[in-house]
Every structure is written in structure tokens, then in C-alpha cells.
């Protein structure tokens, strides 16, 4: 019965590659610059809901730094995708609604990556994963 629910190695490799590359891109391009240049980011961040720069920047840092670390490890990966998806939707639909697909392609691609991971989960190549039990040949 265990074999019926296990994924082929290439699927696990693909999900790991998607997690790794998506998270590293999000961290490098968006997350880490917000942390390393926090004061400057407070003066530049858009505030689409009028909550102030701190309440706009802190959720973005959570979604773009903390959540990718969970996804990279595969721990609470589906749950960690939700704040990222939320921040990306706000960015694409509320902050930059006038952008063409070409102008917002990076954001849309990140949205595709993290929505896919939210739907599929992290795969079996993750911290704390238990290898599927071997089923003897001919059984099952």
C-alpha cells in the first residue's frame, strides 16, 4: 500500500529543484535586500492599504525571508507558501495593477512556482521525511 502513495524519484527531484530555485530567487532578489537595507526600504516600500511602511515591510520580510527558509527545508512548506502567494498577489494586483505581463513576469512566475508548491507539497526530499517502506517484490 505504501508504494501506491510514494512518488518516483524524478518527481521528488523536480519538487526539490522547484523549491530550491524559487526560494533562492525570492530570497536573493526580494527578501535579503529588504533585510540588509531595512531603513532605506522603509522609505521606498509601497503602502497600498494605508497601514504605514512598517506594517507593509514586515509582512513582506516574513513572506520573502522566513517563509522561503521553511520551504527550502520542506517543513510546513504548503503553509509557508500562503504568505508568499498573498504578498505576490498584493504586489501584482494592488501595487502594480498597470503592469503588463512582460513588466510583471518575474512576479507572475514566482506566483506560479509557489502556488504549484502549495498544491503539490514539498515532495519527499525534505527534512524529517520518512523513506517509504520497501514492499517485497510480488507483494502488493
From TrEMBL:
**How does the protein's chain sit in the membrane according to the entry?**
Multi-pass membrane protein
Keyword set, alphabetical order: Membrane, Transmembrane, Transmembrane helix
- Quick one: where is this thing mainly located? membrane
Which InterPro entries does this one have?
A: DoxX
**Domain of life, source organism:** Bacteria
Q: Which residues cross the membrane?
A: 12-31, 51-72, 79-99, 105-121
Q: Which GO terms describe its cellular component?
A: membrane
**Where does the UniProt annotation locate this protein?**
Membrane
Q: Per its record, how is this protein called by name?
A: LysR family transcriptional regulator
Q: Supply the source organism for this entry.
A: Pantoea latae
The major lineage groups are: Bacteria, Pseudomonadati, Pseudomonadota, Gammaproteobacteria, Enterobacterales
Amino acid at each position: 500500500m505504501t508504494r501506491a502513495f510514494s512518488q518516483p524519484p524524478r518527481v521528488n527531484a523536480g519538487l526539490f529543484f522547484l523549491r530550491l530555485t524559487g526560494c533562492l530567487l525570492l530570497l536573493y532578489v526580494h527578501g535579503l535586500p529588504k533585510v540588509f537595507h531595512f531603513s532605506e526600504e522603509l522609505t521606498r516600500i509601497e503602502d497600498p492599504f494605508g497601514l504605514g511602511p512598517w506594517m507593509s515591510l514586515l509582512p513582506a520580510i516574513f513572506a520573502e525571508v522566513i517563509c522561503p527558509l521553511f520551504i527550502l527545508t520542506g517543513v510546513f512548506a504548503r503553509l509557508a507558501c500562503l504568505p508568499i502567494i498573498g504578498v505576490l498577489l498584493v504586489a501584482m494586483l494592488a501595487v502594480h495593477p498597470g503592469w503588463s505581463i512582460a513588466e510583471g513576469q518575474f512576479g507572475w512566475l514566482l506566483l506560479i512556482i509557489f502556488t504549484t508548491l502549495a498544491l503539490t507539497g514539498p515532495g519527499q526530499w525534505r527534512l524529517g521525511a520518512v523513506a517509504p517502506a520497501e514492499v517485497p517484490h510480488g507483494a502488493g
